[in-house]
């Protein structure tokens, strides 16, 4: 293998690929990056078996070939080389890099041990609009569980149904759902659960306005194609909870409140709530709502907010408690000026929505408290 490539392009690609490597001692090749020179381009691949990436870079290929090199070593080296043209040449299991005033030789590994990675998206199952997908992910990723004992909750459920894509996440204490309308229709409903880490990488990497998606069901993989880049993810096995069953169909209170006012009140209450299990009490009155919290170390805070109260229970006061961190995460994900809160009773989930976006819904389970 022999080729010429710009240091700037190679350095950027190596920094991205390095995020997809693994330091598993039993599989040292996963700590490497695969270089494949062919058809006047250099393909760089990396994988940790949960997610994989392939980047295609323009280069002048004089001799085709391939080699794998430890990710950290080559990334650190190329990053510190002088900008300009580099010459890469591989013989057997060694890679030499020639730059301005520098020559380095790195030891690699046999490419036969490197896991096979697809080189392109085959028949696209769907073409997804970038802006809508990024908006949807920003509204569901924060509600994904970190509890590895329930693997299905550590990812996002994506449903392809009729002319919409539904994104759902839950950690058992809260749930986010965002629907995205699309032009193409699916004859058969499809469901897939993808790891949070992969979707975070998708939001970081995508620049094209359209994202191509392919299912490889036999391999339990999903492929995303964009920007001369291929992002692959394993599908999480298991059955996602029946989330539609737990969403309340009716409510006793509908509260329309300014988002910034509510977020400010939540942050003020958190000063005391973080010493008391993160619990804040939300009291519904005829004039609006009150948020209060009491610290176990002494001290308390109360914040009153004007709000429009509707519903059959508006003539009665009600107190319900929530984890303030969940309220804060939801409010930070909103773009709107107002928030609509639907409540039934102190023991039922609170439903939080954007009055201007009927396709977004967030549900938070209450914290049980003594009256």
UniProtKB/TrEMBL annotation:
SMART domains, per the entry: POL3Bc
Gene Ontology cellular-component annotations: cytoplasm; DNA polymerase III complex
SUPFAM superfamilies membership: DNA clamp
Summary of the function given for this chain in its UniProt record: Confers DNA tethering and processivity to DNA polymerases and other proteins. Acts as a clamp, forming a ring around DNA (a reaction catalyzed by the clamp-loading complex) which diffuses in an ATP-independent manner freely and bidirectionally along dsDNA. Initially characterized for its ability to contact the catalytic subunit of DNA polymerase III (Pol III), a complex, multichain enzyme responsible for most of the replicative synthesis in bacteria; Pol III exhibits 3'-5' exonuclease proofreading activity.
Subunit structure: Forms a ring-shaped head-to-tail homodimer around DNA.
Subcellular location: Cytoplasm
This protein's record includes keyword tRNA processing: no
Pfam families with a match to the protein in the record: DNA_pol3_beta, DNA_pol3_beta_2, DNA_pol3_beta_3
NCBIfam families attached to this UniProt entry: dnan (TIGR00663)
Superkingdom assignment: Bacteria
InterPro entries: DNA_clamp_sf, DNA_polIII_beta, DNA_polIII_beta_C, DNA_polIII_beta_cen, DNA_polIII_beta_N
One GO biological process term: DNA strand elongation involved in DNA replication
Residues annotated as domain DNA polymerase III beta sliding clamp N-terminal: 1-118
Protein name as it appears in the record: Beta sliding clamp
Residues of the DNA polymerase III beta sliding clamp central domain: 128-242
